[in-house]
Write a structure and sequence with these properties.
Blueprint: E1 28-29, E2 32-40, E3 50-54, E4 75-85, E5 93-98, E6 101-102, E7 104-109, E8 112-117, E9 124-127, E10 135-144, E11 157-158, E12 166-167, E13 171-172, E14 176-181, E15 189-194, E16 199-204, E17 209-216, E18 219-227, E19 230-234, E20 248-254, E21 259-264, E22 269-273, E23 279-283, E24 286-287, E25 290-295, H1 309-322, E26 326-329, H2 336-345, E27 348-352, H3 362-370, H4 388-405, E28 411-415, E29 417-418, H5 426-436, E30 441-442, E31 445-446, E32 459-463, E33 477-483, E34 485-486, E35 503-504, H6 508-527, E36 531-537, H7 561-575
């Protein structure tokens, strides 16, 4: 049963400017009601019979489409939106942005195909200057989605959901919007910071003269006009951390008249030894215990799409109030505003890449590793990664993910593979990701299919049924999944007859006691033995999986926030003993 959250979506949902790190004054949100139809892949729409509320997928409650909607393999979705533009959006270059469309799509503007995109979780931008006109315009989007019939990246979506697999969705599921820029405009920014030197370097994809202004609140810290595309700003910057999430705003103005606003936080991530010689994860050059929670990013009324910006903000604020300093974003990419809230609230993020591949084989992926059997990940058949096209699609999506999120101060760690599903050539992939972004940590094979000390950057453990431990290893040892304690809350579950979790509790008092024992008796002693990070499963229930701290509809928190904070404070005190 689909459940409504408390958050109102409004006539134009998620209408906030979608890209906080590269804002322009020109902005037209195209979210809202679109004409909608489902037809055969080879067919055409003669007449639209439905309206859909974009950016919610038709399988979601918030979309306004009837419950039980599914998209067949021989079918496609067709969206159409009429909108008007004035001179303010036609003054140079007009850009059309899509946050995400699942799984493959073609975009038409005024009858002309302007773009095709083949990855369901990454954004894309189309220069529509030659197709858009003053006055009325017609935008059409056609989507197909094979879910597990292809090896493309699909995350936790399944046409047969149950347990750790969730309702498949399709079509537009993040914001659609227009903006205008000069003919010569800033195409992208790359921001890197150096905590030791207390400086930030901004590389602008623009050739010509530019002026940068850096602010601390309303106070101007730095101003410089420069030629070329790179500028380094040095000042007595406060270092960003979960305890001090200090951000600095800046603007860039070009000699062509383009202007963008952005921000940065000065921090660094690394690996080093503590005073006892144990390998630790470092934040700003010092050992830092990353204490987090797994976040699938599913919503009872929006599926992959949060109901509102406020919903994202309030959930992250609650996690922070509980005492967590990190979130592992699990096999999903969020809208950029989610990461902005992590930046300003002070939550580190471990960012998973979106997995895919062939059939998930339980014996290969979970059973044999549990029994101690190891397998090399260049065996593509074993890991359900035989498709050459799908492997290249994963690499391309990884490139897009890093490019999309690289400027977010909160992201500390990239996680290419999870529990072996679709895993391939992990050492090469990790090296390539490090080449793309040398500033962050990499958990290359989160879970069970460790490829040895020479090939992976962390010893990453998922432990649900066996005792928690820290194996002897020269790499940082992280507990990248554990816990998964479940408590059903009647009236707030997806299915009253089904439930999945790793340890079941009948009362919330029992759940709280179980969490105290788990953290203070079992996990806390491991920190001095070398444990560098911990990720509890999970933020919220998701359909049949009811091991969340919050119910699926986010209406109820199963553990008092203040009590959880007390537990996390004890973990923090223990972690601060590591120097």
């Amino acid at each position: 049963m689909r459940l409504k959250t408390k958050y109102e979506v409004g006539e134009i949902p998620l209408s906030e400017y979608p890209r906080p790190q590269m804002r322009r004054d020109s902005y037209l949100c195209l979210n809202g009601l679109w004409k909608f139809e489902k037809v055969k892949r080879t067919g055409q729409v003669c007449e639209y019979s439905k309206n859909i509320l974009v950016p919610f997928s038709p399988e979601s409650l918030n979309s306004g489409i009837e419950e039980g909607f599914t998209l067949g393999l021989d079918e496609k979705l067709v969206y159409e939106k009429e909108f008007e533009v004035g001179d303010e959006l036609l003054c140079g270059t007009t850009l059309l942005h899509f946050g995400a469309v699942d799984q493959e799509c073609e975009v038409f503007l005024n009858g002309r195909c302007v773009y095709a995109h083949g990855s369901g979780y990454t954004p894309f931008t189309v220069d529509v200057t030659s197709s858009i006109v003053k006055g009325k315009n017609v935008l059409k989007v056609e989507c197909v989605d094979g879910t597990e019939s292809t090896e493309l990246c699909r995350g936790k979506q399944s046409s047969k959901p149950g347990k750790i697999w969730y309702t498949a969705q399709s079509g537009i599921w993040q914001s659609v919007w227009l903006e205008s820029a000069p003919v010569r405009y800033i195409r992208a920014l790359t921001i890197t910071t150096d905590a030791k030197k207390k400086q930030a370097t901004i590389v602008s994809e623009y050739e010509g003269q530019q002026k940068i202004r850096v602010f601390d609140g309303d106070r101007l810290l730095f101003e410089k006009t420069f030629s070329g595309n790179s500028v380094t700003v040095a000042a007595d910057f406060e270092l960003w951390s979960p305890e001090n999430p200090k951000l600095y705003d800046f603007t860039l103005e070009t000699d062509s008249g383009d202007k963008v606003s952005s921000y940065f936080g000065v921090r660094s991530f690394g690996v080093g030894k503590d005073e006892k010689g144990k390998t630790r994860l470092l934040l700003n050059g010092k050992p830092y215990f990353m204490n987090g929670v797994l976040d699938q990013g599913y919503w009872s009324d929006g599926l992959l799409t949060p109901p509102s910006d406020l919903a994202m903000e309030e959930e992250l604020t609650a996690l922070k109030a509980m005492g967590f300093n990190m979130v592992r974003k699990h096999i999903k990419i969020e809208p950029l505003r989610w990461y902005y809230h992590c930046d300003r609230l002070g939550l580190l993020v471990w960012q998973d890449f979106v997995n895919g591949g062939g059939e998930y084989k339980f014996g290969h992926i979970a059973l044999w590793p549990f029994l101690g059997v190891k397998h090399k990940d260049n065996d593509y058949k074993y890991f359900a990664r035989e498709g050459v096209k799908a492997r290249y699609e994963f690499i391309h999506a990884a490139e897009d993910t890093v490019a999309y999120l690289k400027n977010c101060p909160c992201i500390s760690t990239w996680v290419p593979f999870n529990e072996g599903w679709g895993q391939f050539d992990s050492a090469k992939i990790a090296a390539y990701v490090k080449e793309l972004d040398p500033t962050r940590l990499i958990d290359s094979v989160s879970g069970w299919h460790d490829q040895g000390r020479k090939n992976t950057t962390m010893r990453s453990l998922h432990t649900y049924y066996t005792p928690l431990r820290v194996p002897r290893d020269p790499r940082p040892v992280v507990l990248s999944e554990f816990g998964g304690y479940s408590k059903k809350v009647q009236g707030h579950v997806f299915d009253e007859e089904k439930e999945f979790g790793y340890k079941v509790f009948q009362t919330e008092e029992g759940l709280l006691l179980g969490l105290k024992t788990l953290y203070l008796k079992k996990l806390k002693p491991l920190i001095k033995k070398g444990l560098c990070a911990a990720v509890y499963t999970q933020v919220s229930d998701v359909e049949e999986e009811i091991n969340g701290l919050f119910t699926y509809d986010r209406a109820h928190c199963k553990v008092p926030v203040k009590e959880m904070k007390k537990i996390m404070d004890e973990i923090k005190v223990e972690a601060e003993k590591v120097k």
